[in-house]
Structures are given as structure tokens and as C-alpha cells.
Amino acid sequence: MSSFDEMDAFEGASLSSRAMAARPQPYLDGLNPAQREAVEKLEGPVLMLAGAGTGKTRALTARIVHLLNTGTARPNEILAVTFTNKAAREMKNRVGQMLGQQVEGMPWLGTFHAICVKLLRRHAELVGLKSNFTILDTDDQLRLLKQLVAAENIDDKRWPARMLSGIIDGWKNRALTPEKVPAADAGLYNHRGTEIYDHYQQRLKELNAVDFGDLLLHMVTIFQTHADVLEQYQRWFRYILVDEYQDTNVAQYLWLRLLAQGHKNVCCVGDDDQSIYGWRGAEVGNILRFETDFPGAHVVRLEQNYRSTPHILAAASGVIAGNEGRLGKTLWTEATEGEKVRLIGHWDGEEEARWIGDEIEAMQRGTRGMDPMSLDDMAILVRASHQMRAFEDRFLTIGLPYRVIGGPRFYERMEIRDAMAYFRVVTSPDDDLAFERIVNTPKRGLGDKAQQKIQVTARQNGVNLVEGARILLADGGLSGKGAAQLRLLIDGIDRWNSQLRGPRIEVVQDDDLIDDEQGPVRMAYAPPEISHVELAQVILDESGYTGHWQNDKTPEAPGRLENLKELVKALEQFENLQGFLEHVSLIMDNEQEGEGEKVSIMTLHAAKGLEFPGVFLPGWEDGLFPSQRSMDESGIKGLEEERRLAYVGITRAEQVCTISFAGNRMIFGQWQSAMPSRFIDELPEEHVEVLTPPGLYGGGYGAAMPKSNLHEAAAEANVYNSPGWRRLQARAGERGMSQPKETRNMTIDLNAVSSFVMGERVFHQKFGYGSIIGIEGDKLEVDFEKAGIKNVVSRFLTGCDDVPF
DNA sequence: ACCGTGTATGTTTTT
DNA sequence: CATACACGGT
Fold it and tell me: Quick one: angle between helices A56-69 and A33-40, nearest 10?
């Protein structure tokens, strides 16, 4: 491996440049002592315990810049790992900014997965893969497992493939190959778990494919079994940085520890109080154990908060104090007092949404001496995504612009996945899963029976499905319409494939690690006749896929065509289809920055790392938050994770934090009443102001609450032991399940100022097609074909050319 | 082969 | 309530 000899040769160079140091260090200005310590302590293991809003990203980037600026390390000798692409991108940008120039390359700054792909492409053969392996997403993974489960004659009802995929992911998170699964887990999935896991891994190898978990797992395996490979990277990565260390799982931990054992210059940044991904395999233990794992570790605590007001900070600290076994930090701030955390209870979820909508509009105008706040500066953070609906419905009705963060991701949409499957089949004909997906999409009259024939033929001849189909056709094993259609498809694939840059991949031993943006695999092709962007369009058109959606009359069809257009447009930024596919398989960018100010709605999980001047935290009811399921499944550990989630939520707020709960909520079509969250008890009373909900007789609960009072028990009394709350409870009981809906006796005003008329057929972005059955000012009542009757503001509707009925 | 109706079953999510 | 899947009819 000549590449590594050359890499090593650079070490001398960097050492000599270190001596010349003494360059200006503007990036150190304005750092507080703790941050500065974290930046300057370059050698040896460092744990940077960074509380929420304490400027950890700044410290982390300054540290990278410091490494570069002092000549301690060259850009390509620094391994910097993050969890999300967003974090990686931000770090890259900020390093560039701080450095005052564009770094030629930080090839090893990226997510765990992206870096592992790069490494695994170099060493794929060590785990029986070719370096052009494909990366399956969760959907492909599940379909593959379903096939295996079906082949084993397992009752999919009692033992759903979904469950198995969860189990296998769990094993991979713990870096367990099939042989290493502990005996204790043997009983899982009806005692067949390990067995099918093994089959699954074999099948992946046959398909020359990996799933997300494999990226880490394979690299750990390689490092553990090939000392020479490990040593080379240990030598090469002289400085290692890890962001969000509290979120690492066992596999990631092992991977890091193996690599860090070289120079032992590893700097992990994290906050044990923000560990909220335990359910997905993250081990808080990793960060708690850091000092034992890395002897001589230097621990730096970042405790000065630059984000929130003292009241908000105190409230958050009060809640998180309920957790045991923390590393412990005391956040403080120099900020002026500001607003107390506001707490308000509501009758039901609908009212909560209504109140929050009104409050947002009020804050936007500027209320009670507070400056007006932009909608962009406000966010609603919910525990579970189904809570979003109430807000969406309400905001659509009142015409409040909002954006949902972390909704269905662009690349997870059906049409995008279909289109990409076409691209995959064309770029790598061995991708059987992709072929299966598109063979009968659009409908080609190739049902289960025909597809099975293709499978059998392929298997008998030991070839991929495209070839199998070809042989089947040649043998005349298929007849009628299906045969002709399949012929067309196969011819299409051949044609598109030839229009691609070329069919063969050449592995280049690439020793240039610096501008290694495309990885070591280089394509050696003749120049293409048409660009990959045009080719993509051709594939979609000639395959009939575009036509399929053009003929589709469902309300979603126009949006899907729009998405396909976007997809083709996105291709322009890539050199070729392969590069694009790799990008999409690892990246889930969903930045649909619409025009104008919008309130953000997202889950608490999605909010980690973000901050907003105004934050609303609705749904603080026991069972919803903390979630009953978390507590049932993981007991105290689960509750503690929920509590950290509460901590994350509160600490997102800079100026105003409003917590709310509803006494009644429609869940799974049934009205249920709940007690306010136990976390509400844990809010320190002196930092909380209890607001009075409107429309509650006699001021309701909390209204007359003595502010600075006395007994802690009073804090409880304010909220749910108050007469008002009891009254609510009692009434909820009386009414039972039949909570009356808002009575609909709208005045239908035909003279209303609106460009719409009764009975007109309209289209709505979210609800699809419908007809107007009521008009009141600019508020319209629309009977949607799919979504039923909704009240919508007119500007969310567009008329259709269709004949009104 | 495809479409419709019926029933079961409902966190959190990145890569 | 609403969606996702399985089943049975055309």
C-alpha cells in the first residue's frame, strides 16, 4: 500500500511547520477561559462537557482551526466526526470562516457513516464486498428481510419483519456480527433471530450491499481483524474530534477507541444531560466512562450559557436535577433576568392549539412591552409527531404560516424512491432490490407470478434479475402483454446504461487523501453523449414513470411531478448519477426553505442543537410526556431520558419559554383525560409564571396563585391540585367520551369578499381537491374529497379548471 | 393482475 | 381518527 507510505511521509513536514508557529490567533479572541482551555489543550484525551448553549460548536471549530493554524496538524490528519450532515456542514463552514480562507480540504470531517463509507470503499474486499457496494436504506432493508422471513415460512403476523429489523439493528449498534450474538439473545424472534440475521448478512453480501449499521460494523470488524489496516489509520489520524459524544452507540465507540489508540489525541464533546437517543442504541455510559476509557483524560466543563435568560436556565436545571448519575454541570449566565417560564393549562388539545396560535400572533405584534418577534424566531416543540396535527389544522384555519421540520424526508417519498430505483438499476444492474421496485412500476402487467418466474430464472442461472428477465424472455417463458412490456423495459435499461458514462468501474489506488472528495474509486469512462441530468429525464420519461403520474388523477400527483422535477434539478450539482446516488443514500437534506416568515413545528428530538427566541412546549401530560411507553419499556432509565428531553426542550428557548398541557386529548379517536406532566412539578416555582387560560369560568386554576410563595406544595396546588383542575377532571368524567365538537352553524355569506364561489372546486396543498360548501369572509368551509370537511383560509386554496359540481 | 373493502394498530429518528 | 396491510372478489 504505497498510499500510506506517502501519507506517513507528510508527518515530518507537519512537524517542521509546527516550529514556525507564531501566527496571529484571532479565533481565540472572545473565548471564555474554559473554552480556551478546550481549544488549546491539544495533546492527550480531552472531554469537553458542554452544557446547552455554552458555545461548544465554537470551541470545537476553534480547536480545529488552532490545530491547523499552529501547524500541529494538516487538514487531512484530523478526523472530525459528527452525527448529522448538518452538523458536519456547519463545522466545515465555520472552520473556513474562522480561518479566513477556504480550507483546501478536510476530507475526514463528516458523519460517522460518511467517513465509514469512504473507508469501507477502500477495504471492502476484506469483508467480502466489492468497493462499489450499494447502501440500502431502511426501506430496502425491510423488504429484504420480509423476503427472508417469507422464505422461512414464518408467520409474519406473530413475528413481523419489522421487529426483526429492530433486533438486527440493535445487534449492529452493539457491533455484534451473527457469530457474536450472545446466547442470551438466542430466544429473540422465536429463536430464529440469529439464524435469519446470518442469512440476511449473506444475502447482503450476494447483493454487494450494506445497510447503515453495516457501515460501522464492517469497519470495526476490519479494524479488529486486520491489525495492519488499523495501524495505518491510527498513525494517520493524529487528532480526533467527536461531536455529540453522548449519542454514540457501542459500535461507534469501539470504532473510535480503536482509532484513538494511536496518538491518543481524542477530543470528545458532549453533554450527558442531552442524551436522548438511548432508544436507538446510544449509550450514555460512553460519556460517563470517558475518564476510565481514556486514562489521563483532561475534562473541561463549559458552563457559561450564552443562549437563555436566567429564569429559563433555572427552570431547566431544576428539571434535570431529578436525574441520577450525571456528570454534573452548573450552567450560569450573565444575561438579564427576562421573562419567567410561562405555564398554562387548557381544557383540551384543540384549545391548546388555538391559544398558542393566538399567542404567536400576539408575540408577532409585540405584547406586554415585549418587542415584536418574527415568526422565524418561534418554534413549537412536541414530544410525538402526531401532536403536530392539531397545530397544523389550527394554523391553516387562521392562516398562520408554519413549517414542519423533519417531516417525511424528500428522499423517502415514494416517487423519489421509485425514480432513484430506476437510476440504480441503470447504474448498477446488480441491484436486484431496485429492479424489484420498478419492474412493475408503472404497472406493466407483471404481477407476482411473472416476477417469481424472473426470480427463479435468475437464481437458476446465477445472475442478477435484469439478466434473469432477459433469459426468461429469450426462452419464451413469458407471454402476452407482460412479455412485451418487460422486453421494452429491458431494452430501455440497456439503452440508458449505454448512455451512461460507461459500464465499467475501475478501482484506482489513490494516494491523494487531501482532495479525495469522491473517494478512492475513480470512474474511467468515455465521455457521455448526453449529460447525466438529461439522461435522468430520459429514463423517467421513456420508462413511462413520468407519464404514470401525469395520468394519475389523485390530488398528490401534481406534487409528485413537482418533486421529480426537483430531483432532476438536484442532479445538476453532481458530476454523475453514481455520485448523486451515494449522496442521497447518506444524506437526508430537507431544506425546503419556503418564502416568508414561518413558525417552526418539530419534535423535541429534531430540535436538538437548535435555538429560538420563543419556544412553545405543548402536551406536557403524564403518559404523553413523559411518554408512557418509554417508562413501561425502560423504567427509570426511560423516565430519565424523557427528563433529558424536557431539559433539551426548555434550553432551546432564548427569551420566552411557554409550557402547556391539556386536560383532555383525542388519542386514537378516543377522548382521554390526563394529569399534567410530573415534570411540571419539577419546575422551580420561583421561575415560573402561571398564566390563566381564557374562557375558563372564575379565572380557573392558577389565576389567583400567590406568586412567590412559601411551601413547595403550593407549586403543586397551583396546577393540578387546584379546585379549577379538579373541576376540569370532574367535568371530563361527566362528559365521558362524548366531548362535543365545536358546533358548526356558520353563517353563509354569499357577499363575502372572496374570489371563490359556493360549490367551486378548489385545490389545497395538504388536503387535495374539494368543493366549497361555506364562505365566511376569507374563511372557507371546504369539503375535501380525501380529507373531509375543513375550515381553511382562502389564500391556501387555488381554484381548478375543472367544472364545478 | 388489480382493485376494493375490511381489520389491526398505532413514540421519539439519523444515517 | 387514519393509515397500512391482508384478504377476497372481479
Answer: 40
pTM value > 0.85? no
Is A481 part of the annotated catalytic residue set?
no
**DSSP alpha helices (H): ranges in A240-309?**
250-260, 284-288, 290-293
Cβ atoms < 10 Å from Cβ of A352: 26
A146 flagged as catalytic? no
What is the CA A525 to C1' C6 distance in angstroms? 47
Active-site residue, selected from the candidate residues A140, A169, A214, A244: A244
Tens-place pLDDT, residues A628-658: 888 888 888 889 999 999 999 999 999 999 9
The DSSP result for A203-232, as a single string, is HHHHTTEE-HHHHHHHHHHHHHH-HHHHHH
- List, in order, residues 6 or more apart from A680 with CB less than 8 Å away: A343, A620, A659, A661, A719, A720
CA distance A620 to A382: 9
A347 in helix, strand or coil? Answer: strand
Q: What is the mean pLDDT of residues A480-484?
A: 83
* Whole-number Cα distances in Å, A450 to A61, A337, A446: 56, 71, 5
Q: In this predicted structure, what is the pLDDT of residue A553?
A: 72
Active-site residue, from A134, A274, A485, A546: A274
Catalytic, A487? Answer no
Q: Where are the alpha helices (DSSP H) in A407-464?
A: 414-427, 432-438, 448-461
Calculate the angstrom distance between C1' of C3 and CA of A414: 15
- Reported as a single tens digit per residue, the pLDDT across A50-68 is 999 999 998 999 999 999 8
Question: Reduced to 3 states, what is the DSSP secondary structure of residue A601?
Answer: strand
Residues A121-168 pLDDT 10s: 999 999 999 988 988 888 888 888 888 887 777 777 777 778 888 889
Tell me: the pLDDT tens digits for A379-434? Answer: 999 999 888 888 988 888 888 888 888 766 777 778 888 898 999 999 988 888 88
Q: What's residue A796's pLDDT?
A: 66
Nucleotide lying nearest to A786, CA to C1' measure: C2
The pLDDT score that the predictor gives to residue A159 is 78
Rounded distance, CA A281 to CA A304, Å? 30
Distance CA A593, CA A600 (A): 11
By C-alpha to C1' distance, C3 is nearest to A668
Question: How many C-alpha atoms does A189 have within 13 Å on its Cβ side?
Answer: 22
